[in-house]
Amino acid sequence: MLLDSINSPADLKKIPENELGELAKEIRQVLITKLAAHGGHVGPNLGTVELEIAMHYVFNSPVDRLVFDVSHQSYAHKIITGRREAFTDPSKYDEDSGFTNPEESEHDWFNIGHTSTSISLASGLAKARDLAGDHYNVVTVIGDGSLSGGEAFEGFDVVGEMGTNFITIVNDNGMSIAENHGGLYKNLKALREGNGVASTNYFTAMGFDYRFLKDGNNVEELIAALRELKDIDHPVVLHICTEKGLGYEPAETHKEIWHWHNPFDIATGKTVHAAAGKLDEVQAATAAANNASAAADELASYEKLSAQWLMDKIEHDPRFVVITSGTPMVVNFTKERRDKAGKQFVDVGIAEETAVAMASGLAKNGAIPVYAFSGTFVQRAYDQIMQDLCINDNPAVLLDFSSSVYGMNDVTHLSLCDIAMMGNIPNLVYLAPTCAEEYVAMLEWATTQRDHPVAIRVPATGMVVTGVKDTTDYSKLNTFSMTHRGSGVAIVGIGDFFPFAESLAKRLNEELGIDATLINPKFITGLDTAMLADLERDHTLVLTLEDGQLQGGFGEKIASFYGPTAMRVKNYGIQKSFPDRYVPAQLLAQNGVTLADMTDDVRKLIAE
Amino acid sequence: MLLDSINSPADLKKIPENELGELAKEIRQVLITKLAAHGGHVGPNLGTVELEIAMHYVFNSPVDRLVFDVSHQSYAHKIITGRREAFTDPSKYDEDSGFTNPEESEHDWFNIGHTSTSISLASGLAKARDLAGDHYNVVTVIGDGSLSGGEAFEGFDVVGEMGTNFITIVNDNGMSIAENHGGLYKNLKALREGNGVASTNYFTAMGFDYRFLKDGNNVEELIAALRELKDIDHPVVLHICTEKGLGYEPAETHKEIWHWHNPFDIATGKTVHAAAGKLDEVQAATAAANNASAAADELASYEKLSAQWLMDKIEHDPRFVVITSGTPMVVNFTKERRDKAGKQFVDVGIAEETAVAMASGLAKNGAIPVYAFSGTFVQRAYDQIMQDLCINDNPAVLLDFSSSVYGMNDVTHLSLCDIAMMGNIPNLVYLAPTCAEEYVAMLEWATTQRDHPVAIRVPATGMVVTGVKDTTDYSKLNTFSMTHRGSGVAIVGIGDFFPFAESLAKRLNEELGIDATLINPKFITGLDTAMLADLERDHTLVLTLEDGQLQGGFGEKIASFYGPTAMRVKNYGIQKSFPDRYVPAQLLAQNGVTLADMTDDVRKLIAE
């Protein structure tokens, strides 16, 4: 194998140019083998093997700085830059992250995972180079799907007047995670079809020079094109067309589902389900809370439940609009559902800021918008949630998925700060359902009231179906639900950690004989001060349990409320940090969030 | 006066077209008179009088929806839509906000103040219209300076494929608040100079149709152009050129300083300083803490101190770079300073996301970036601070100005949530100086250490100069400073509220005979747990005092720390809300943050 000799870009450069096509085949085979066993970003990596070979063949990394947008497509780059074994040796598959990572290699400049950041980040590298009087190349790779994010535009605009070496390779595979959306993509299409010539050109309008290469999977043509740009003295875009998923037929054919994929059988492309492991405490609590057999059926996920509920509303009410920002599958809006919803579905592309603002405008103008997203990405719309939506107090509905310790666990995809972010914005009502019935009741209320923006923190620990309809009047804001009144100790368990709070109550009863009061607050953005004050009569300790970061979170508000009183309060959650590729139960244990540790704490606290 | 007859757009339409030029003159005179007495956005409003007359002459507001970006230029619109007296009657000058406001008028769709939002907000209005099967016009006005913000681009991109009526008027006056920056502006210039024709066109690249009108201050030509676009069935940009500050010579000549201006003398253009009122408690505390006569001299503002300090560093160290995002005067980077700093100054335009990412890239590549901003606007870069900067832990420095109850008091320009936002991001070190000496020591440390991103919350209550050099070693993170050790009660006063905490200590001593411990935490992003734990020996009550929102803030962390203990904690600050055009002392009083109320609280709490 040619690949065996490559431990650095210098080794790559020793291979004759006419053998690089063969090397690409080898790398592609390695990728397919690892991805089948391990899961990961299939389409993006298979499409850019030749590009990354060519980049390292022409440029001199790490002197020349190579920056990959999202960096989910950087596997070939990793293989070439000394990390081959993380792809060829199954025992080392987990050694490297799925993204560029400066802790792994001097060839990686940033830990990246969110889209549309590469040009802005690299603008700083270029500026620092120029200040130091150096002359190396700064090269960025950005996919067409990432172009729609505001930060990418800002980056083009800023670099467009820098008048210095800056090479941006636009990797155009004709789609985002799902279809591309936006007027810009008409221009990209025109440029593709015109072989780089069209009546207008976004990139030159931004102040960049522009080159076009049709066959972006031809390594020799790529090398020629990049050689021409090396050491250029101004910003230039090289627009190349690549085939997403190239070399693995299922990924070529079904590009959306193969953007990221679980482990699969190479021959059939079918998903391989790992044998279920032992449930951890949180998962066991969720399972224990799950009384209804429905949980086992096809609808037993909040994503599918959401999609069905929304499709039903769309069908019966023309005012309903579902918005997503590039990730419709977050709410299980399959191609079929998107087509069926028609004009009542809007994918704005990767553009969370506009998604929130559009939702505000829709709500203001009489429609019923529901914007569904992954918590980690909506961080990009913090100001829009505050300014465009909440100052205006328009009744848009936000569905926050996978904000949880049990959400995505790459450091760049964490959503542990959603409560710190959304829980502290005035006018916003942020709700935390503990089961499917509450979730549906919250959806019904949120989409019929016209008073406030409402966000719902969709549980990420698995769906609980209690079989009992929720008849709560959610217009009575900040009314907590006390599911059991005991005495001495009260446990406030928020959202998907409520079943865990139930388990804790059981444990306290068994081990300490405590009849703990159990509270399901439902509202994250306010306190039920009457209920909390009433606890002072016959409780001395309140525990709070939340699925996210403690700092800025919900528990701190309870602590502040009781601050002037004799009530003791202990907050449980995750200490402020950026954990990477962690195991949830371990992270919780490190933070003392286990039934054993919490029971011990209570034992000590009530003895004082 | 023609103006006297106008109480609605219907009245405007009764005026013959050839008299509208006269009306524009009258409105301009009214604006100058009010602005001279009241202060406000001078340049933007004087430049768009004809445009707003033409819009209301052609369109049928509020059936047709008119949305103004930032809406700082909407005064003529307000005058035409029934709010004339707020501009002609001095006793009513304060009745209306400086921005569009749905609470004032059905002709206003959003409460707006941040830039670059209009197209995205209006995309929702248009979508709701289409869903309802209606056919009115959706019209937005956006200035050239606002185009550089990512949300504007996202909006263009999304609307560019909507294929429906959407009219965007690009009001091109050739500058932002300061100079325009970005590659896009080369394209705008080419379009201006080519009478709407250039080799490429940003707006058509976004999928918009495009029209050009050179004389955007000619009301009859504007009317003709808008009539042509009315009821158009697809998105179109009308690019017009206007003169910022038109009709008031000083504002025409010195556009940057007349973008927004304090009250002024019309004849000379000189600023009129209001007679100083009685100091409120916070201001008095700040004054009392100010021992040095230097406070009275020319350098006695944190803005000027910052600028001088930064210019000195720039001169002596080529690695230093100052970044601003469209508002260089935030850190007193005058035109002269910008020119002198040369390539060591970067104004990215209104593009906070890229400013943060660029700072991260600069720091990663060996430079020393200092990004200065108003707290309210950096909210747009929440995700970039977290992802691009803090996950990568690059040593960029952020200077946060006017995050304070004493900052801008328009609801759209509040920065009361900066602690909730930046105080809860992992890896970030957020510092709160209480005086000039601490500020300088923090700047020195922040720009020499290479371990973490550091943000500094620059005080907004006025500069305190103690005359005592600060020799703190800030590399010992989260080490609080105890300036006095008493017993019983401890007061933690953060940043610019530390002098206020000193006043409270004095009051507690005088009224209750309490020798309160005084703590200046300096670090917002972490607790000095050793010092706090030590207080438990001989204190029963800790008060926290912060200049911002309580929820998600600093005090809650202290409450959570002491939650499991017998220590009582009382947090002082502002309850979560969106106050608008408030008086700081009143807002504080409403929240119980007065010396009298706090003293009363202590009296009660220690008696329990």
UniProtKB/TrEMBL annotation, chains A, B:
InterPro entries: Dxylulose-5-P_synthase, THDP-binding, Transketo_C/PFOR_II, Transketolase-like_Pyr-bd, Transketolase_C, Transketolase_CS. Keywords: Isoprene biosynthesis, Magnesium, Metal-binding, Thiamine biosynthesis, Thiamine pyrophosphate, Transferase. Gene3D superfamilies: 3.40.50.920, 3.40.50.970. GO terms for cellular component: cytosol. It comes from the Bacteria. One of its GO terms (molecular function) is magnesium ion binding. Pathway: Metabolic intermediate biosynthesis; 1-deoxy-D-xylulose 5-phosphate biosynthesis; 1-deoxy-D-xylulose 5-phosphate from D-glyceraldehyde 3-phosphate and pyruvate: step 1/1. One of its GO terms (biological process) is thiamine biosynthetic process. It is an enzyme of class 2 (transferase). Its cofactor is thiamine diphosphate; Mg(2+). Pfam families: DXP_synthase_N (PF13292), Transket_pyr (PF02779), Transketolase_C (PF02780). Its EC number is 2.2.1.7. Residues 300-466 form the Transketolase-like pyrimidine-binding domain. Belongs to the transketolase family. DXPS subfamily. NCBIfam families: PRK05444.2-2 (NF003933), PRK12315.1 (NF008968). Homodimer. This is 1-deoxy-D-xylulose-5-phosphate synthase. It comes from Bifidobacterium magnum. The lineage of its organism: Bacteria, Bacillati, Actinomycetota, Actinomycetes, Bifidobacteriales.
